[in-house]
Design brief:
heterodimer, A: 245 residues, alpha/beta, Rossmann fold, 8 strands, B: 489 residues, four-stranded mixed sheet, 12 strands
């Protein structure tokens, strides 16, 4: 299958290893990955912060780049939520029937990374080995908007030598919330402290999720307090093999 | 007409007020304990319902239908209530409602000292009725245990359902000791309940005028419904000679049958009970049974303005169960006072800025991570995150219309980023520039002291610097390598 990768702007810039891991996992499964280099941002940050007018050109740009893709893989649940929850509404508000039709046609081909593997490709064993203890934080967008369910757990359980540790109160938000982390930094960090207390109590070496944004928040707090727990996107764990250790 | 929700003139912005709340460890412990308990009870009572999702949908449908035909149902309610011997008054705003209430109380008090007993009503807090009554020389006694605690300690409610949720029983004992002159009062729940009972019983027996809110006003019959746990509400609506019910216009529902839906959803969502211990319904007046005179004040106070926009209208579906407060990870940290309005938590963050003009509560729609926990538990399916985003858009557009707003650091940054993202060449240039610019902020492999808006991140959290190679750089390098190896072979 030809899979177009929308890596997400913040992954591209700050977490290139996630895009690399997605590419390796999909190629290992025998698929062809394409990366349209014209891609930038899905418009989520603008839209959710209230700059909806400024988000529209980015939404149009995204649709025009990916409209002909067979499948689009997005290793960021919050970007997928932006696309699924808001693109159609934005197109309606633009009063542009052609644009609205393109959005409607494109939506069923957009998949979050774990959704693509488990639901679209029917894979839960990607042949990975990762000899570490891992705990999983279900990010709010993956949990309550995409409803990814147990897909990520199924993928993690099939990783060789991986010890999966449950995270207590896992459904509680980590406090990131996009610009919330800046505008309400004090509350954001109070929420993060609760989350990180739970993460540390699991004793896991690695915390993983489907969103590097939440992981950036969690890691940012953990590292500031001197913890050595690593934050890794699920794709990075799934791309690991015996050789990587 | 100026609309205010509670004492907003004193309110700080959410981030400022939240900072104060976060320093109060006792308050945070109380809020966490209380919300944890209610959440667990709610989950238990919701999970046992096989048709919960259908009930939510039915409630949402009934509410949306009613709001689309609100004029019809309000007039039907008025007709039927008056036919049964009640009198309906219409109030455009807080001042009008308070003026009506004061006039009625004075009229019925005659030469006697003017005193009233009150059932828990958030709507009366919304219009600051107790302040208006005090100005008019009327003594008001809150009889809901939590409201009584709030009133005695000159405090503000911090939760829609549990107004004194921020207090623990040791604090309550101190408040009671002082106000009831009980030196030896114990701190066990039974001691506190006994003290409250003795204090209130005398009021119930003596005071002739009661004030209530309403959970539902039923158009078909002109009936009013109040649900509660303590029975003090039942006393207030049955014992006095005169009952005045203050009802927000969105509380009307078409038929008695509709209660079948709401009375399943409300107690389970609010307190984790299958049914409220006290469900009081009354229709007009009945000779020899209950109050001899019954007045309804139907309150608008900004509600009509929400009806025209479909997204905003959804806010009026709220049945004030408070489930969104208990589920909210932001409320959990700050409690209710930080919201600067008697309506706190996620519902407060959308209701307050819409009822009153935005200027009093512009920071509230940003007091959320959009985590969606509120929407998930809402028994009438109000899509709170979507309404928050909608209100953020309104605020930004209002800001951009002013010179100062359009030149704010945030607005300039957002506009610049939109332009950058519109071209991958500009975006790639910006990536390179950021990589260069971050060098002076790097300490031991981390960014720990960024300037400007980003400083709010690094004040508390580290940030890994932007790596030398972006994903697209890696992709291009790999594509070139593949191409050249293919050429060589």
């Amino acid at each position: 299958m030809r899979i177009a990768l929308f890596v997400a702007c913040y992954n591209d810039t700050l977490f290139p290893e996630t895009g690399i891991a997605v590419t390796r996992v999909l190629e290992r499964l025998g698929h062809t990955v394409e990366f349209p280099v014209e891609q930038t941002c899905c418009g989520q940050m603008h839209h959710n912060t209230g700059y909806q007018t400024e988000a529209v050109p980015l939404v149009r740009r995204f649709v025009s780049i990916f409209r002909d893709a067979e499948i689009v893989c997005v290793p960021s649940a919050s970007c997928v939520a932006m696309i699924r929850e808001h693109y159609e509404l934005i197109a309606q508000q633009e009063h542009d029937p052609d644009f609205a039709r393109e959005v409607r046609n494109l939506l069923p081909r957009i998949f979050e990374f774990s959704e693509l593997l488990v639901e679209r490709l029917g894979v839960d064993d990607v042949g990975a080995t990762f000899p570490h203890s891992v705990t999983y934080h279900p990010s709010c967008h993956s949990l309550r908007m995409l409803h990814v369910g147990d897909g990520p757990y199924r993928l993690l359980r099939r990783v060789r030598k991986l010890e999966l540790v449950g995270l207590p109160n896992q459904e509680q938000c980590c406090g990131f919330g996009g610009t919330f982390a800046i505008k309400n930094a004090d509350v954001s960090v109070a929420m993060l402290s609760e989350k990180n207390k739970e993460v540390l109590e699991t004793g896991a070496e690695v915390i993983t999720a489907l969103d590097n944004s939440c992981l950036m928040q969690i890691y940012g707090g953990l590292h500031r307090q001197g913890s050595s727990v690593r934050a890794m996107h699920l794709a990075e764990i799934l791309s690991s093999s015996e050789v990587d250790g | 007409m100026s609309i205010r929700v509670g004492k907003t003139d004193r309110a700080s912005s959410f981030p400022v007020a939240a900072k104060d709340a976060l320093r109060n460890d006792q308050l945070r412990r109380n809020v966490r304990n209380a919300t944890d308990i209610i959440r667990a009870k709610r989950a238990l009572r919701v999970d046992e319902m096989p048709d919960w999702e259908q009930l939510r949908q039915a409630a949402s449908d009934i509410k949306m239908h009613t709001l689309a035909h609100l004029d019809h149902y309000l007039e039907q309610f008025e007709r039927n209530c008056e036919q049964a011997g009640g009198k309906v008054h219409w109030a455009r705003d807080a001042d009008e409602a308070n003026t009506i209430a004061v006039a009625l109380i004075k009229q019925y008090s005659g030469d006697q000292p003017a005193e009233v007993i009150k059932v828990k009503t958030m709507t009366s807090d919304e219009i600051q009725m107790n302040v208006a009554l005090e100005h008019a020389g009327i003594r008001a006694y809150e009889t809901d245990l939590a409201d009584m605690i709030v009133q005695m300690s000159n405090d503000e409610p911090s939760h829609i359902v549990v107004p004194a949720l921020h207090r623990n029983r040791f604090e309550v004992r101190e408040i009671f000791r002082e106000h009831m002159s009980l030196v030896d009062l114990g701190d066990q729940p039974a001691d506190l309940a006994d003290a409250a009972r003795n204090y209130l019983r005398e009021k119930f027996l003596r005071i002739k005028i009661g004030i209530s809110g309403a959970n539902f006003a039923i158009a078909e019959t002109g009936s009013v419904c109040v649900v509660e746990s303590e029975g003090n509400g039942r006393m207030c609506v049955t014992m006095p000679d005169v009952l005045i019910s203050l009802i927000g216009i969105e509380k009307v529902i078409p038929t008695f049958q509709d209660l079948e839906v709401f009375l399943q959803l409300l107690p389970r969502s609010a307190t984790g009970e299958r049914m409220n211990p006290y469900n009081s319904f009354w229709t007009g007046v009945e000779p020899g049974d209950g109050p001899k005179a019954f007045h309804v004040i139907l309150l608008d106070n900004g509600r009509t303005a929400l009806l025209k926009d479909e997204r905003e209208r959804e806010t009026l579906d709220c049945i004030r169960c408070g489930a969104c407060l208990n589920a909210c990870p932001v409320y959990r940290e700050t409690g209710g006072h930080a919201y600067g309005s008697i309506y706190s938590g996620p519902i407060g963050a959308i209701l307050s800025p819409q009822l009153q003009s935005l200027e009093h509560s512009r920071s509230l729609p940003y007091a959320s991570t959009l985590c969606g926990a509120c929407y998930e538990v809402c028994p009438v399916k109000i899509n709170i995150p979507e309404i928050l985003i909608h209100l953020r858009g309104k605020i930004v557009r209002e800001d951009q219309a002013t010179l100062r707003g359009s030149l704010s650091a945030e607005c300039l940054a957002m506009r610049a980023m939109s332009t950058i993202f519109f071209s991958h060449r500009r975006y790639e240039a910006a990536q390179r520039l950021a990589r260069l610019g971050q060098k002076i902020f790097e300490r031991r492999g981390q960014l720990t002291n960024l300037p400007g808006l980003a400083g709010a991140w690094t004040e508390f959290r580290d940030l890994r610097p932007i790596p030398k190679q972006s994903f697209r750089d890696w992709w291009k390098t790999r594509a070139e390598a593949t191409a050249s190896s293919e050429e060589q072979s």
